[in-house]
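User: I'll paste a sequence; please echo it back and then give the predicted structure.

Assistant: Echoing your sequence first, then the prediction.
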Amino acid sequence: MINSIRTLTIVVLTLFCITAYAQTTKVVVIPLGDSPFNYAKFSGPQRDLKQSLLEDEGWEVCHTSVFGSGSSALGSILYGTCRIGAELMLACRPIEQVGGYFTLAAYAPREDVTFNTGYNNIYTTHTANGSEWYYDSDQSWGFAPEGASVYKNPCDFGVQEEKDYRMCMHTDKGDLDQGFRCGDDANSLQISTTWERVILQR
């Protein structure tokens, strides 16, 4: 009888402990882009960033267009819809991820993101916040990781070093033109309507 009571007590205590553990312990599955990461301030090109978490830190989308579209006037972007932010972010993703995750993104102060690196200066970049930036209104606009070389022809093309962390958009006569890359996930997006380029401001 005593042994039976002792056995029953052990069973009850075991069940109590399991129940208490289940009530106080959660198994947390961290989705892509939600890992412990400082969305408020980061450096260099980043992959798989969640749009809502960027918005929580003050970022807002001010321009979107598919890579296959052209004739978006840079003036209407930089001095119109994206005119108020002291910082600019370039990002890209498949359109199925609209509102979700950016495949690739980088940011810096406005004057660095739009620093004119000159027409046909195919190797010239401007370093800011962990990225190599380049911009010319009649050639291309984009970034690569800090310290990386680029080959703008007219977009950064053919360099294999850290190819997943390079973004480039064609420009032509003051317009954001068709093409060209979102990392190595989508390369030569000349007529693509399934990938988009995004500009955010803060």
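The chain has one domain: 46-201. Helices lie at 2-24, 51-56, 74-81, 110-113.
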